[in-house]
Amino acid sequence: MASADDKSYDDINVTPMVDLYLVLLLIFIIMTTAGVQGVKVNLPSASSKPATQKMDQPKTQAITIDTEGKIRLNTLPVTLADLETKLAALKVATPELPVVVRGDRGSQYQGVMDVLDVLGRVGITQIGLATQPK
What we know:
alpha/beta; Nucleotidyltransferase, domain 5; 3 helices
């Protein structure tokens, strides 16, 4: 009578070995993609002098309305009349003048409408309203 100890082992269970190989392959793939930084190239050098040419693209003007209703053109505080004269002068220099209106969340809606009214009188058509993504 044969006992359990005398049973021959004809087949080998390879499932744990395959699991180990898959884990090693996964670690290798992750480490390889994480280690890729980019291709090294010899970049051209530029002069240290600032460019003196006039740029083709006009500079975007930013109009900011804060919570108190104060208006700023870029960083300079202005009134509505000053804003209109400055934008009219910029519009003469650059016919396709882009403007971004940035109104604070707590600001009065009337302040934004006053600025949009000034932009309409000046004839600026490229207007963007700055928002924050959710």
